[in-house]
Structure formats: C-alpha cells, structure tokens
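Run: sequence + zinc ion -> complex structure.
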Amino acid sequence: MLRILSSRTPAFSSSLRQGMLVRSLCASAAQQKPTGESSIQMRDSIELVYEPKVDGQAAHAAEDLNATQVIGRIDLTQNIVDKADRFSIQISETTHIKGSALQECVYLNHSCAPTCKVHFHNDTLDFVTLQPIKKGEALTFNYVTSEWDMATPFDCTCGAPGCVGHVAGFKHLKPKQQAALYRDGLLSPFVANKYDTQQQK
Ligand SMILES: [Zn+2]
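>> structure
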C-alpha cells in the first residue's frame, strides 16, 4: 500500500544524499535516550525508507503497532520558532515547532487518509497511531490538522477517497472537509479553537 505522495522530504533529499541528516537526527534521538520512554518508542517504532515517489525518506512502521500508540514525543518547551517552513508544525498563530526538533517524525509524510495524528499536550506533542499498523506500512498524518495557512502548499496525489488535492492549510478546505476533521477530533487545539471562533461569528 502506498498512500504517500506528497512529502516534506524532497527539500531534505540533497542533505540525505550527503549523508548528513539521518545521522544527525538519529544521533539527536540517541543522545536523548536516557531521558524517557518517548525516544525509545520512537526509535523502536519508526524506520526510514527511501520513497522513490517523493525522492526522499519516509517514515514506516519498524514493527507492528497498535492503535493509539505513541510513536514519537516532542518537547514543546523548546525549539519554537516564529516562522513556518515546510517541516515545522504550527502551535499557535505566531509559533511553530521547528522541523529539526521533530527528529524521525519529520519523515511522516502527508496523507488525506493518514495512519497517525498529532496530539498536543501542554508541554509535549505526540505522534499517535490512529489504527493498528503493520510493520512496513507508511506512517503519515494529515498536515492540515495542524497548519492553518501553510507556508509551502503542495498538490497531494495520495489518491485516498476524499483527497483534498491542493494542500494549503485548514483555512483552505471546503466547509464540509473542515467540519469532518473537527468532528473526528483530529485538529490541533490551535486549529480547533480558531475554527470554533469562526463558526461562532
Ligand atoms: Zn491527498
């Protein structure tokens, strides 16, 4: 099964060819290993696979995963920037987690029918599986669940029923698509609150 067709990774691929990025990300995960469960889960759950369709690395399940399993946990108390880019994740109107802080999770590509979601807590951001995932299956999440108005929109060709086509942020979805993501509880607190506010106007 191949559902990832739009990726954060093309811009990384030149670095990858130089052999820099994966090593630095893995080193950074390894350095953090004594501090907690999350980096252990992350290393065990995610493997990076070359994805020809996007000419870059993609995160795949390194083992069979259960539904609602945390595959990566990111510290929100640091690595915050005020400018979005292709790899960042939005946390408020003016703040974003920078891509380098996402470690292996930066390789979760976009899908309109994703296998994972992002779940925000006060100080952490978790990447959580939405369903049981078999070893080798792609780990993906829907970028518009956290991005209101994306700095780097792209055309999605994931082919999923209901694929939104042009991925430019939650703001640009059709009302029906927005309502479905809201109803399913997939939105970040920032996007959910902003949507709520707009609906009340
Ligand atoms: Zn799509």
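>> summary
The first helix runs from residue 10 to 17. Residues 112, 156, 158, 160, 163-164 surround zinc ion (CB under 6 Å).
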